[in-house]
Amino acid sequence: MKIGILDSGAGGLTILNAIRQKSPALDLIYLADESFAPYGEKSPEQIQSRLIKIGAFFEAQHAKAIVVACNTATVVAIEALRASTHLPVIGVEPAVKPACRVSKKRHVAVLATPLTAKSERLKELIDRWREDSQVNVMSSPTLAFAIDGWPESQSKVIETVECLCRQMLEQEVDTLVLACTHYPLVKNLFEMALGPNCEIIEPNDGVVAQLIRRLDQVYSDEAQIDLSSESFGQIALFSTQGTMNMDRLTQWIEDSASICQKEYVLL
């Protein structure tokens, strides 16, 4: 059973790793849409059109479901993708609900890309779950793209993370929502800058749980066999920018030994 996973770059590999840990038998097809990155600088209409093309690519690869492993693409384009494909489509949303529930000081920060930060969907989630919490929405126009350039961009990433964390400490934030799938790749930098008294929330577990639920609902016995298998599936990597960045992508994959394919795809 093949699962398609998409992101503008390396960020969605945090979701790929989580799926791999929970359901290792699944074959995973990862598309890094690097030629179109960063998504945060594109209009909603451009991202919607792009995701429809990516959905057609996954259908041609015989995927059984699509995971939109990008907060920005989820909030502005997931419904357009769902309308264009017969496959189950799972998105990723800022983990506002668990953050507001665990925050002790009731001071929560949501760190997102600019498009996600301004989205109606994020506003709805905050209004629904904040209760008595103070929720500060923060954004960075450069951090996700800089993480894609790791390790050459390491000093820039560290500088940006430390600057953002200083603002959070000044605001006495005790719970941080990483609302971009790129950010958990450098979670250790946030942990070092914020210290042990700040809880850091990422969405991976919720996405994997929803994927497994949808596979079970749509494919029933076929999904149960795949999900319970102790065998290991394969990982295929595709990039819309060529193969020159494959080593950058591979460095973030925990089970890199299972990579069977590295290819360029033109969309």
UniProtKB/TrEMBL annotation:
Keywords: Cell shape, Cell wall biogenesis/degradation, Isomerase, Peptidoglycan synthesis. Pathway: Cell wall biogenesis; peptidoglycan biosynthesis. SUPFAM superfamilies: Aspartate/glutamate racemase (SSF53681). One of its GO terms (biological process) is regulation of cell shape. It is an enzyme of class 5 (isomerase). GO terms for molecular function: glutamate racemase activity. The keyword Isomerase applies. Its EC number is 5.1.1.3. Pfam families: Asp_Glu_race. Substrate binds at D7, S8, Y39, G40, N71, T72, T181, H182. It catalyses: L-glutamate = D-glutamate. InterPro entries: Asp/Glu/hydantoin_racemase, Asp/Glu_race, Asp/Glu_racemase_AS_1, Asp/Glu_racemase_AS_2, Glu_race. The active site is at C70 (proton donor/acceptor), C180 (proton donor/acceptor). Belongs to the aspartate/glutamate racemases family. NCBIfam families: glut_race. Provides the (R)-glutamate required for cell wall biosynthesis. This is Glutamate racemase. It comes from Marinomonas spartinae.
